[in-house]
Amino acid sequence: KDIVLLKSSEVERMEIKSGTENDRKDYLELYEYAAEHDMTNMIHYQYLAERIDLDNFIRNYLAHIYFGSCDWPDNNVRAFRTKTLGYDNSYHDGKWRFSLYDMDTTCEDYKHNTLLYALGREKRDWENNEYPAEWSTQLFAGLMDNATFRKQFLDIYQDYRQTIFQPSYLLNRFDEFVAA
């Protein structure tokens, strides 16, 4: 009862799986805020940082970008948060977090520039050859305007490049899944 869970769909920006219409509006307002405010201004950036677990957001985006998700960011997004605050658990802070979901259209098109697609600057190379829905790129594009966010994004990416994005690591993980 304390969890809000939203999922994107092609029909509706974010569908309520658990929570209320106000929770959905709260989430979508973050995208509008990023589009309407200058994220280079630390006051505006801080507003979003207080509402979104940016570390989680970055890691989620890096996974989608690295694996070339073609059916995202305007689809297959899962966002969740707690409604109340608790001090016994760092995840019980009311911030929005993201989980990977339905990544069956990854690693399909090596030419697809998922980073530019997630920023709304490139069309997808398959299906309708369209840009992602504008609302779905506003938050990431806005945050990337901020130097603090960009540095955090690049630092985590560098760490991932040297660890979990290494072919030897990934191949070992794939072998573990196949064996299981």
- Rounded mean pLDDT score: 89
Radius of gyration: 17 Å
Spatial sequence of strands, sheet with the most strands: 2-1-3-4
H-E order: EEHHHEEHHHH
Low-confidence parts lasting 5 or more residues at pLDDT below 50? none
Estimated share of beta-strand residues: 5-15%
Helices and strands in order:
Blueprint: E1 3-7, E2 15-18, H1 21-36, H2 42-49, H3 54-66, E3 78-82, E4 97-99, H4 114-118, H5 134-144, H6 147-162, H7 167-179
Antiparallel strand pairs: 1-2, 1-3, 3-4
Helix pairs in contact: 1-5, 3-6
Q: Key features?
A:
180 residues, alpha+beta, four-stranded antiparallel sheet, globular
Compact overview of the structure:
The protein has 180 residues and is of the alpha+beta class.
Structure description:
The protein is an alpha+beta fold. Helices cover 46% and strands 9% of the residues. It is built from 7 helices and 4 strands, in the order ββαααββαααα. It has a 4-stranded antiparallel sheet with strand order 2-1-3-4. It is globular, with a radius of gyration of 17 Å. 26% of the residues are buried.
